[in-house]
């Protein structure tokens, strides 16, 4: 009996640790929509957001569709619709479908031809949506990212242009042509160049085309099947880009849309919910479409001569290219009844699909301390060897996502990673299909050859200047383990330098530098599963508490502050993580305060190197110090090892001499970009590369090099003493670095940038 029991117990343990089959098979999807185009986008969004048994909706990106003034007369109810209107409608659809946590990103007002020259920048018209597609495409997963484009292809084409390395990780599905009719209509005419770019894509990205499925539904059916259907939301949400009446369920909105928009004849005889029908091809082909693989055709435009009601039909001819090695697949002839039956069933038996774990933990961190956190691991993790995660506190019914596609349940979980890499482990609670993150750990899974490598977490106001970009590239091309990259503001009071939009701009620049690095052919030593994740950080400084006591400071809880805690939890105690803030210290200061709330001894697992501060104090002759001086004081008081590489004079001494150094940059896209921004920044023949010194310092420290030539043990004084440095004799956690061997550091930087990173052997 005893044997049987223990057998049962171990069987149960095995079952618990087996990745959930359903979670494995779900399709990762981004919905790219011109939501306010007609009435079908809204139905497609609802269909996807309610099909959680099949889709994981990672986000909604918004495109401009094909709206232009000529169409207004045909569409008095919708009028001329702008990208902002499409965006508003998409946001409201997510709310109405009880999925308001699904990110909605705005795409461009312009088209591919107008924007493509700008895609070389971190921010441009539509970069929010484009950067999101790139970021999600690179997110660690063994499942490809599907993009269902139900408008024009501007966002998709720009993402592939900006970062061609996403091509093998994504599958494009486009609902947008009347193939083989000889004209381009709506979604195609909305951006002819974007379609051409996809048809000719040199990376041969998977491209599925769903010609308009004209399969109609009558108003009687809609009224009978949709009224009151779908989850009820409170408060009710206005439809029609926020201008219409409020609706407490999508079903009611569906009836309203159909009633107001669809003409009498179509109400009686049927109108196709085109984008919704097309989605059935992706939903395990529930629509029974017939796929035709073929050489990519080309569309030859003719002069646009038609006006008025036909203006949306752009004349041209489809030319078949049967032997074209570039292949596409057309999905045609769906089974009308199968699609609508599944759609109506889904309305009655919805499973929310927007429950993918987002990295945004800001709204949950507040109760993380009492709900349970992951206990920091106690040694290095090796591929092929088990690691056990346990919890502090009691989150009730803990669920785990282990970062390699595996899931598990229970207060203690043992798992074996098969491949070395960087993994993000998340513990959370589940309400229905909804997963709420409670705590996370970033884990470097090693081979015995890599356990000694220093680990860094970058933290950067990437676009405020030109040195951050050098610092990111240096980190990636070096042999350091880069666990993540945090974004942060650079003084939101600086309205001339991005103001409130800074964090978003800086995040975009990080994505941009990563894209250039991936295309530079120098990341062979850093396979994709060892690339860093990117986290959104604070967009405002810490506030000085009324008491003046640093312990009363409210942290700004963000993905980035959580990432610092997560990196610390996943670090082996004998190999603390170097956190390298090269902007204000808001993220690190917040992490310190959060750790105190959780009772987590962060100081034992991290070391901090901040690039900032002036000769005498935090916030004079220091851009980074001025942007959040209180955060520097908090970090100084925390007891954590805190190295301060003074912005002036120390960081400034590591300077580019354009007369000699510009020729040393590598001949690749990244090198070109770094040279370009260095030239644009100023006409001066020299330019300080401040932030770069932090990476050099970690490398120099590992090698035992004496690259820090004058260090002063100090304290950081508070605002009542003008945030001054105070030199001290006794033990202290704060070290002010006043002088460095800048030439040695710069030499290491350029050697690394050119593909010969310094080898980092185990220390003796
Ligand atoms: Ca559409
Ligand atoms: Ca910086």
Automatic annotation (TrEMBL):
<dbReference type="Pfam" id="PF01156">
    <property type="entry name" value="IU_nuc_hydro"/>
</dbReference>
<dbReference type="GO" id="GO:0005829">
    <property type="term" value="C:cytosol"/>
</dbReference>
<dbReference type="InterPro" id="IPR023186">
    <property type="entry name" value="IUNH"/>
</dbReference>
<dbReference type="InterPro" id="IPR001910">
    <property type="entry name" value="Inosine/uridine_hydrolase_dom"/>
</dbReference>
<dbReference type="InterPro" id="IPR036452">
    <property type="entry name" value="Ribo_hydro-like"/>
</dbReference>
<keyword id="KW-0732">Signal</keyword>
<feature type="domain" description="PKD">
    <location>
        <begin position="393"/>
        <end position="427"/>
    </location>
</feature>
<dbReference type="InterPro" id="IPR013783">
    <property type="entry name" value="Ig-like_fold"/>
</dbReference>
<dbReference type="Pfam" id="PF18911">
    <property type="entry name" value="PKD_4"/>
</dbReference>
<keyword id="KW-0326">Glycosidase</keyword>
<feature type="signal peptide">
    <location>
        <begin position="1"/>
        <end position="23"/>
    </location>
</feature>
<dbReference type="GO" id="GO:0008477">
    <property type="term" value="F:purine nucleosidase activity"/>
</dbReference>
<dbReference type="GO" id="GO:0006152">
    <property type="term" value="P:purine nucleoside catabolic process"/>
</dbReference>
<keyword id="KW-0378">Hydrolase</keyword>
<protein>
    <submittedName>
        <fullName>Inosine-uridine preferring nucleoside hydrolase</fullName>
    </submittedName>
</protein>
<dbReference type="InterPro" id="IPR035986">
    <property type="entry name" value="PKD_dom_sf"/>
</dbReference>
<dbReference type="InterPro" id="IPR000601">
    <property type="entry name" value="PKD_dom"/>
</dbReference>
């Amino acid at each position: 009996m005893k044997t049987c029991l223990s057998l049962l117990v171990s069987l149960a343990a095995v079952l618990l640790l087996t990745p959930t089959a359903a979670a494995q098979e779900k399709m990762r999807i981004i919905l790219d929509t011109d939501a306010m185009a007609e009435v079908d986008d809204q139905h497609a969004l609802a269909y996807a957001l309610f099909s959680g048994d099949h889709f994981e909706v990672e986000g909604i990106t918004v495109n401009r569709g094909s709206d232009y003034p000529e169409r207004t007369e045909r569409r008095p109810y919708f009028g001329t619709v702008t990208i902002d209107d499409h965006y508003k409608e998409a946001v409201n659809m997510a709310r109405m479908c009880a999925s308001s946590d699904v990110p909605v990103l705005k795409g461009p007002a312009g088209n591919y031809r107008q924007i493509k020259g700008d895609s070389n920048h971190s921010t441009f018209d539509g970069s929010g949506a484009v950067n999101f597609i790139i970021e999600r495409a690179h997110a660690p997963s063994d499942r490809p990212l599907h993009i269902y484009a139900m408008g024009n292809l501007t966002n998709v084409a720009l993402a592939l242009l900006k970062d061609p390395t996403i091509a093998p990780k994504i599958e494009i599905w486009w609902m947008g042509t009347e193939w083989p009719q000889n004209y381009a209509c709506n979604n195609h005419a909305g951006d002819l160049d974007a379609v051409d770019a996809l048809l000719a894509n040199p990376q041969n990205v998977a491209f599925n085309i769903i010609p308009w499925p004209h399969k109609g539904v009558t108003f009687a059916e809609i009224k009978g099947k949709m009224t009151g259907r779908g989850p009820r939301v409170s408060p009710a949400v206005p439809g029609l880009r926020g201008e219409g009446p409020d609706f407490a369920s999508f079903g009611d909105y569906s009836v309203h849309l159909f009633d107001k928009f669809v003409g009498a004849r179509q109400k009686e005889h049927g109108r196709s919910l085109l984008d919704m029908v097309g989605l059935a091809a992706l939903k395990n082909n529930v629509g029974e479409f017939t796929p035709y693989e073929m050489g990519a055709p080309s569309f030859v435009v003719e002069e646009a001569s038609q006006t008025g009601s036909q203006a949306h039909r752009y004349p041209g001819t489809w030319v078949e290219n049967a032997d074209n090695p570039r292949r596409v697949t057309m999905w045609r002839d769906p089974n009308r009844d199968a699609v609508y039956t599944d759609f109506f069933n889904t309305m009655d038996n919805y499973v929310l699909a927007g429950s993918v774990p987002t990295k945004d933990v800001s709204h949950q961190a507040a109760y993380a301390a009492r709900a349970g956190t992951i206990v920091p691991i106690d040694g290095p993790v090796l591929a092929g060897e088990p690691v056990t995660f346990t919890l502090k506190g009691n989150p009730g019914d803990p669920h785990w996502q282990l970062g390699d596609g595996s899931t598990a349940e229970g207060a203690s979980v043992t798992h074996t990673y098969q491949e070395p890499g960087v993994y993000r482990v998340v513990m959370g609670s589940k309400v229905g299909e909804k997963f709420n993150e409670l705590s996370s750990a970033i884990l470097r899974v090693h081979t015995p050859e890599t356990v000694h490598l220093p680990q860094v977490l970058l933290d950067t106001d990437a676009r405020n200047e030109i040195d951050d970009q050098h610092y990111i590239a240096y980190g990636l091309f070096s042999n350091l383990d880069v666990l993540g990259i945090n974004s942060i503001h650079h003084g939101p009071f600086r309205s001339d330098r991005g103001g409130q939009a800074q964090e978003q701009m800086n995040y975009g620049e990080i994505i941009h530098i990563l894209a250039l690095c991936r295309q530079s052919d120098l990341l062979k030593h850093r396979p994709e599963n060892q690339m860093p994740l990117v986290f959104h950080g604070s967009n405002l400084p810490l506030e000085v508490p009324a008491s003046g006591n640093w312990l009363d400071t409210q942290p700004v809880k963000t993905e980035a502050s959580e990432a610092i805690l997560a990196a610390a939890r996943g670090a082996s105690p004998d190999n603390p993580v170097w956190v390298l803030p090269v902007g204000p210290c808001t993220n690190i200061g917040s992490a310190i305060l959060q750790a105190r709330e959780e009772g987590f001894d962060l100081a034992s697992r991290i070391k901090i190197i901040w690039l900032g501060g002036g000769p005498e104090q935090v916030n004079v002759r220091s851009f980074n110090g001025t942007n959040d001086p209180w955060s520097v004081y908090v970090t100084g008081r925390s007891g954590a090892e805190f190295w301060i590489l003074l912005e002036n004079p120390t960081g400034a001494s590591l300077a580019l001499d354009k007369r000699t150094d510009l020729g040393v940059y590598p001949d690749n896209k990244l090198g070109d970009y770094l040279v370009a921004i260095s030239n644009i920044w100023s006409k001066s023949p020299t330019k300080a590369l401040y932030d770069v010194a932090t990476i050099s310092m970690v490398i120099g420290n590992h090698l035992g090099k004496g690259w820090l030539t004058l260090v002063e043990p100090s304290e950081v004084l508070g605002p009542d003493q003008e945030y001054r440095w105070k030199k001290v004799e006794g033990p202290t956690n704060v070290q002010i670095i006043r002088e460095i061997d800048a030439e040695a550091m710069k030499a290491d930087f350029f050697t690394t940038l050119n593909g010969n990173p310094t080898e980092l052997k185990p220390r003796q």
